[in-house]
Amino acid sequence: MSRINLVTNETATTEQLELFNAIQSQLGVVPNFLKIFANSPAALRSFLGFYSIAHEGTLDGLTRERIALAVAQQNSCEYCVSAHTALGEKAGLSTDEITANRAGSSQDAKAAIAVKLARSIAEHKGEIATAELIEARNAGFSDSDIVEIITHVGLNYLTNILGKASRVEIDFPKVSLN
Q: Per UniProt, what is one GO molecular function of this protein (predicted)?
């Protein structure tokens, strides 16, 4: 059971319902972690805005999912590992690719560099080596791409800590951390 209340359609204010309706229209469902966020409509609006803007960048959806899986595993967030396994599969990632992503790599050589960098950023709280940036640039990532990788680490870190702090009930097929 969640340690922070889930806002439901029955308990939601008009503002929270409007946010839920917008989420429902885009995703087809309102995931439980967003129902936790909804306790603060300002926090939910901020997250949705950040999420939307971050997805306008040049990183492709598969790379974003790979990063999300790597960071969720790094941060031991079972909710996010479960969610991004389902989302990754829906986006076209294979089971073997998801396993590689969770381990901090990828079967795709370029994506492996992005995932490795993302894991390092999360693990070292941003204190990465210059060699890691050079490796990313040599793999074809621009400074814009690198900033987007960092942005997605931050975005996923936020959802990881919310999921862990709240102990939100997993509403995706459950995936174990080990």
A: peroxiredoxin activity
